[in-house]
Amino acid sequence: MSIHVSSGEVILVRDAPLCALCSQEGALLYSGLRDRLFSAPGVWSLMRCEVCDLCWLNPQPLPTENGSVLWLRAKERGRLLDVGCGNGQFLARMRDLGWEVTGVDRTRRRSGSPGSTSG
Predict the structure, then answer these.
(1) pLDDT: is 112 or 20 the higher one?
(2) CA of 80: how far to CAs of 8, 39, 91, 97, in Å?
(3) Are residues 4 and 58 in the same domain?
(4) How confident is the model at residue 38 (pLDDT cuts 50, 70, 90)?
(5) Are residues 1 and 51 in the same domain?
(6) Count of structural domains within the chain
(7) Which string of b and e fits 95-117 if b means at least 16 CB within 10 Å?
(8) Alpha-carbon distance 25 to 49, whole Å?
(9) What is the pLDDT of residue 23?
């Protein structure tokens, strides 16, 4: 699945109707959303899980598209929360640019506890 945006750009996405935490089907909160803060291309919907209250974008950019979808202005530093931070590589890069970062991920650390990092 893909979203066509202006200038012939295409963002590869996947449909995400289910909650990533409890696998329940999400309810549509908003549709036709555009990113007014960072001007990321595309039109999105916001879903909400009625069981655990998690909210997420639908569709979701494929992991290979993250760099082309999310542009943070490095000159406007602040606090950044990365949910699904994986190995923390993005957080490390943003911390090096002066951001105060925190990340959480469902994967487990070597110790067996859910992953979390801050800096």
Answers:
(1) 20
(2) 30, 17, 8, 12
(3) yes
(4) low
(5) yes
(6) 2
(7) beeebebbbebeeeeeeeeebeb
(8) 7
(9) 92
Q: Token pair of 33, please?
A: 């959303």
Full residue range of the structural domain in which residue 60 is found: 1-64
Residues 78 and 43 grouped into a single domain: no
83, 55: one domain: no
| Range 37-47 average pLDDT | 79
> Are 60 and 13 a contacting pair, CB within 8 Å?
yes
CA–CA dist 2, 12 (Å, integer): 4
At 65, list the tokens. Answer: 């598209």
Between 1-5, 61-65, 92-96, 105-109, the lowest mean confidence (pLDDT) is in: 1-5
pTM value surpassing 0.70: no
